[in-house]
Amino acid sequence: MDNLSMLTDLYELSMANGYQQTIPDEEGVFDVFFRKVPDKGSFVVVAGLQQVVEGLRNFHFDQSDINYLRSLGLFKEDFLDYLKNFHFDCQVSAIPEGTPVFPREPLLTIRGPLLQTQLFETMVLNLMNHQSLIATKARRITYAAGKRPVMEFGARRAQGPSSATYGARAAVIGGCSSTSNVLAAKKFGIPAAGTMAHAWIEAFPDELTAFEKWADVYPDTAALLVDTYDVLKSGVPNAIKVFKKLKASGHKPVGIRIDSGDITQLARGARKLLDDAGFPEVKITASNALDEHVVMSLLNEGAPLDNFGIGENLITSASSPVLSGVYKLAAVSDGGKLVPKIKVSASREKVTLPGLKQVYRLYHHGTKRAFADVIALKDETLNDQLDVVKANPLATKRDQFLTDFDAVPLQEAVLDGEKLKADLPDVFEIQKHSKALLSELPSTTQRLVNPDEFPVYVTHALDQMQEKLLEAQGK
């Protein structure tokens, strides 16, 4: 990954410069978390950790960066010298990619020199917010598609090359099977997929000739786009003629793609024509501005579809295009001792959770059936009987008593300085991990419309720490 040290907001550099002049030895702890789930879902599929790790390990300022920063006239020379000789000296812990996570849970925690930890805010949020957003959208779409493969087709509609490439990675984490983006396919080991555009058909004298020429070039991967002129009157009949020639010469036709029109009716008609012609194995792919709701509608209508190619609504998460993850200070050091910190707000929802923390997933004892998450102080030991409080400050009946559970910690050590402390698996390993964890959640929390809330609690000790800090601020 390219060096992203200058992908920052100016105030981060200004604050770091100020820290060096005033409290240079202070240590800071920052948490990354979100408060609201996109598309009114119940969880987010976390993604982007690998790029965060790469960005932190490669974090440095070259001479041109130093020269530019000097030209702003804002920074002391000793601070610029510090940046010139920058060495990453923080500890990072995080919830692994692919894990379904919930509001207010710290997805990633960075602890180290305060003037360093402040510098990473924009870079970390940019990487994690974007990929987690797209992974979550992909999970919704692939959930709607069931076992039918979903191909990511969105590069041309993404907001720039990085969004296209890292969005494709996130889409696979969320469940997609392949991508049309060749750069992403190469970079992340994702199968490259695609058929043809309408331009191919239009470039030849007629549709049949176009199909025949394509089959001559790609006899073993012949998937034909059948909606350039008329799907049922010419597209599918011409495809069948070509498929018969391929079959006669020992090749297996792959499929057709429908990219416009009433897809349910066209797919039904195409399926009948293909079956009657002796090609029940030929797959039908649908594309054309699909999302999870359109996919679900098509399948509920009985459309005989085998695959989906989904572009703009996936790669941009068009219906809910922002994950508002935040990067908040949770503690600072004072003579070597960490002191918890809190952000106070008139809105109780925006009050932060102080201190070093760990997130636990709770399972009914002896099972893999998750029923709640608990956010605890890092040094707490969870007993098998636990007084907790709902993490959502607006919830009613907040106090709960939990028993008969197994608690599994979610955050794990990732970086100690530049030393890697955890594996960074490939995208399909992450996808497999994600599907396994999703299968452990209640099905009612996974539905696309009006999902049940998955309970997230904080321990009594953490709740009391927050209340004590609020009282100290007169709140």
Notes on the structure:
The chain is α/β, with parallel strands linked by helices and 475 residues long. The chain has two domains: 10-134 and 321-472, Alpha-Beta Barrel (nicotinate phosphoribosyltransferase); 146-315, Aldolase class I (TIM Barrel, Alpha-Beta Barrel), CATH 3.20.20. 37% of the residues lie in helices and 20% in strands. The chain is built from 16 helices and 21 strands. The protein has helices at residues 10-22, 49-57, 63-71, 77-84, 114-117, 121-145, 161-173, 182-188, 198-202, 207-217, 231-248, 263-276, 292-300, 312-315, 427-440, 460-472, and strands spanning 27-33, 44-45, 91-94, 100-101, 108-113, 150-152, 178-179, 223-225, 255-258, 283-286, 307-310, 326-334, 337-340, 357-364, 370-377, 385-390, 399-403, 405-409, 412-416, 419-420, 456-459. The protein has a seven-stranded antiparallel β-sheet with strand order 13-12-1-5-3-19-20. A six-stranded parallel β-sheet has the order 7-6-11-10-9-8. Strands 17-16-21-15-14-18 form a six-stranded mixed β-sheet. Helix 10 runs parallel beside helix 11 (231-248) and helix 11 packs parallel to helix 12 (263-276). The protein is globular, with a radius of gyration of 26 Å. The two termini are 44 Å apart. The mean pLDDT is 96.
At the fold tier of CATH, the topology name of the largest domain is nicotinate phosphoribosyltransferase
Shape: globular
Biggest β-sheet description? 7 strands, antiparallel
Question: For the largest beta sheet, what order do the strands appear in spatially?
Answer: 13-12-1-5-3-19-20
Query: How much is the average pLDDT?
Result: 96
Distance between the termini: 44 Å
* CATH level 1 class label of the largest domain: Alpha Beta
Radius of gyration: 26 Å
How would you name the CATH homologous superfamily of the largest domain?
nicotinate phosphoribosyltransferase
What would you say the CATH architecture of the largest domain is? Alpha-Beta Barrel
Our estimate of the beta-strand percent is: 15-25%
Number of strands: 21
Helical amount: 25-40%
Strand-pairing-aware structural class: alpha/beta
Number of helices: 16
Uncertain segments of ≥5 residues (pLDDT<50)? none
List the domain count as a whole number. Answer: 2
Domain Nicotinate phosphoribosyltransferase C-terminal: 357-465
InterPro entries: Aldolase_TIM, N/Namide_PRibTrfase, NAPRTase_C, NAPRTase_N, Nic_PRibTrfase-Fam, Nic_PRibTrfase_pncB, Nicotinate_pribotase-like_C
Keywords: Glycosyltransferase, Ligase, Phosphoprotein, Pyridine nucleotide biosynthesis, Transferase
Pfam families: NAPRTase, NAPRTase_C, NAPRTase_N
